[in-house]
Every structure is written in structure tokens, then in C-alpha cells.
Amino acid sequence: MNKLLNRLVSIGFILYTLILLVERIVALILSVQNGGEYALVSNNVMPTIYYAIVVLSITVGAVLLAEPIFKMTVQLFKPENYEFNWKEVILGSMILLVSGMMHTGFTLSWLQFIAYGFLIGAMICVTIDSCKRNKNNYNSIVSVIFLTLFSMAIPVAYTSVNEATQVPFYVFTLLAVFAEIPLFGFMLYEFMNKGEIRFDYSPVIAMFALSGSVVLLNFTAVSNFNWFVAIFVVLTVACYLGFGLRIFLNNRK
Fewer C-beta within 10 Å: the chain N or C terminus? Predict the structure, then answer.
């Protein structure tokens, strides 16, 4: 990887980490009494569980990312490229991502999207590097598109609006977050190391079953239908069936 792309990948992970950490810490502080049913002092037990998960996610993620982020920052001012330890970086990034998937009483969604944008920007830089080395890496381009769509299909943990399906909704919501983020992490680890992914079908099936169930179990009317997750579930499956599956089958020949 040339110097510019190496720096841009580092900047992407640095800003993703710092921006999401700041947003989540501010959210924790201001969510104690703000946000109605999502406030920590509310009588609803689920926001308390989400709040606890955010605290744990921030703590563990920050500990794991502190050293690599510090080293990336220092290396920006040195002539040599930074040698990424992707196992360490991806593990910390995915644990921190869990905090972003828990809705709190105070949330700066636009700031979260900026943080995710820098993470996606780092992925795009890896794609550019892969395409430069392989002249025209179709697999890498499809991989970064698929990974972006997959990440957007991971549902945020909200409170239920459908009393009839509250228990299964919360079960599937937490299952979706704690299953799909590791699946995304495994694929991202492979992508960062190789510039492309294998397009195994199991992550798509798991995402479709879990995210799809979360959308349906909380549906009571069109006004509260989770269009964002539903659209990205469809787009992710369409991307896989249209492009990823072909790559997966070709790789098995």
C-alpha cells in the first residue's frame, strides 16, 4: 500500500474511533434523564440494559483500540507506512460498534453516520489499493459495496412498540446485534487483509433471518415500519445474489 492510501486508512480508523467514542460518551451522560422512555431513570428495563451494554462496549473497545490508534496517529508524522495489526484493530472496532447499535435517550445520529463514513472511507482506500495492484479488481469493488450494505442492515436496538411481540422482538434484536457485528467483523478482517471477501452465504442467511425478524416483530403500522433496515436487508441480499454468489461459486471451482 502506498504512503497516501496507508495514511488515509489510518485516518479513517482514527476518526471513526474518536468520533464514535465522543458521541457515545456524550450520549451516556445526557441520557440519564433525557429521552423519555429511553432515559436511564425511566421505568422501562430495556433502555437500562442498552445503557449497560453501551458502557461495557465503550470501555472494552477503548481499551483495545487505545494503543493501535495512538500508534496510527504517531505514524502519520513519520515517513514509514503503518503496519496494521488487523486482528487487534477490527476486534476493537467491532466491540465499539456495538455501542452505536444501542439506542440511547440522547443520540446524535448524524455524528454516528460521520464516524461510520470514515470507516467506510478506509475500506474504499483498501479497494483502491487492491485495484491498483491487480489493475481491475472486480471482486474488491463488489466486496466493499456488499460490506457497506451489510453493515447498514444491522438493526439498532430500540424499545418495542408492539406489545404482542415484545419478548421475541428483544431476543431477536440482541441476537441480530451480537451475531451480525461479529459476522461483519470477520468479513472486514478478511477484506482488510486480502482486499476482497469470499462471499460465503452464511452471513447473508443469518442477516436476512435476524434483521428481517426484527423488522417484522416490531411492525404495527406503516408509520413505525423500519424502512431503513428493511431496504438495506433487501439491497444486501440483492447484491449477494446478483454479484457475490457468482464470485463465491467461481472461487470454489
Answer: C
